[in-house]
Amino acid sequence: MSAPARRPAIATQDEAPGLASRRVAARLLAAVVEARTSLDGLTDAGGGHPEYRRLDARDRGLVKAILMAALRRRGTVEAILAACLDRPLPGKAASLRTLLHIGAAQILFLDVPDSAAVDTSVELARADPRNARFTGLVNAILRRVSREKEAFLARFDDPALDCPPWLFERLVAAYGEPRARAIALAHRRPAPLDLSVKADAAGWAERLGGEALATGTVRLPPLDRAVTELAGFAEGAWWVQDAAAALPARLLGEVSGSTVADLCAAPGGKTAQLAAAGARVSAFDISKSRMKRLQENFARLGLSAETHIGDLRALAAREPFDAVLLDAPCSSTGTIRRHPDVAYTKDAAEIGKLAGVQAALLAAAAGLVRPGGRLVFSNCSLDPVEGEAVVEAFLAARPDYARLPVRPAELPGLEEAVTSAGEVRTTPDMLDRGTPSRSGLDGFFAARLARLG
Ligand SMILES: C[S@@+](CC[C@H](N)C(=O)[O-])C[C@H]1O[C@@H](n2cnc3c(N)ncnc32)[C@H](O)[C@@H]1O
């Protein structure tokens, strides 16, 4: 039997060390910014970009770190590069721009030797016929970024720079300029690791070296290793869930023994909360692969729920539930701290389209609630068009529903998130815990409604 063919190595033998990871980082950055591809998909262990998957774990870690810095601080990098150029790069020089961004992001924000960042960008330019004649320019610009980095970072320090204009304008319109800047600043920072526990938040906080937030979440500083290595993962004691994402299920109140439909449930963070609280949960989602993840998560956690795969909008009439949670698909702009690509893969037009989908899903969800039952509508968008406005229009069309206002005392430590209408609106600049590595939370919206009896 002949030996199995080896996959071609991504780095050729005479390639400088570290070149393969930078080349992959440049490819993925271009895929996000130019082709608007989601970074989660590109770096997925199973279905991600083949060149990324061929890297070893250390190089994959470096690629992710470069991309996080290059996307979180894209506006700052762009401004500094512009300050180094006598005239703007031509629009069609996209691949050259990408190499400069990759190099500058490392020099400005990562703990790698500047010389390695410069040399690898220069080598990547040399290897590309489109860019070979610009190797001198790449070298000169990146060396200047390295020499003057402190002065450049002090000069270009406005957080709004790192928020693409379409998003900053919408944030200003929704929250006013000072708050929009505070949100943009929070977007620059890596998010803490938040866990929801089945029980004993204080005990798990102590065991893991974190803190138990008043809302029940266990918070750890950003992790530099896989969560699977933490105590309690294998035994299913907790699951990863941002502190804000843990709020909507709590708004349903006491659910033990009740029938609850979790709509748009996968991968199941909220379903797990409801099941752990003793509800008889039916989880619905359109995606087979995401539902498989929910089932895997439930197997690890030792929880159970009925699962249904299909489009909610085509759901046949069925016995109504005591309570329904609809965590609708959205632009995900509330998760930019963890997914900085969202700022570049989404746009204003998509927000309008998604609001239409949310309205249709909310109408479908409303038919599943028994008279006297509760309905929570939530999503992780920062945009009121996908939150407050959807609920406003729903209530105007459905006199058989009313808001069941959330009281500030229901969200201890997060009272500021309860709006005057009794809805929940979190933004990433909230929950200041003294140090950035322990502060902030995802942007979320949630409204609690009651079906009148
Ligand atoms: C924000 S995610 C849900 C996150 C989940 N609730 C959690 O806490 O883990 C939105 C989900 O909606 C599902 N979805 C989108 N359109 C749908 C539809 N028409 N019917 C049912 N599910 C849908 C997506 O597959 C996705 O899993």
Please give a structural write-up:
- This protein has 453 residues and is of the alpha/beta class.
- The protein has three domains: 19-157, N-utilizing Substance Protein B Homolog, Chain A, CATH 1.10.940.10; 159-188, no CATH class; 242-451, 3-Layer(aba) Sandwich (Rossmann fold).
- 42% of the residues lie in helices and 13% in strands.
- The chain is built from 18 helices and twelve strands.
- The protein has helices at residues 19-33, 39-42, 50-54, 57-72, 74-84, 94-109, 114-126, 135-147, 149-155, 165-175, 177-187, 201-208, 247-250, 269-276, 288-301, 342-345, 348-366, 388-397, and strands at 193-197, 211-212, 218-220, 238-240, 259-263, 280-285, 306-309, 321-327, 369-379, 401-403, 424-426, 444-451.
- Strands 5, 6, 7, 8, 9, 10, 11 and 12 form an eight-stranded mixed sheet that branches. The protein has a four-stranded antiparallel sheet with strand order 2-3-1-4.
- α14 (269-276) links the parallel β5 and β6.
- α6 packs antiparallel against α7 and α17 (348-366) packs across α18 (388-397).
- The longest helix has 19 residues, at 348-366.
- Bound molecules: S-adenosylmethionine.
- Its EC number is 2.1.1.-.
- Pfam families: Methyltr_RsmB-F, NusB.
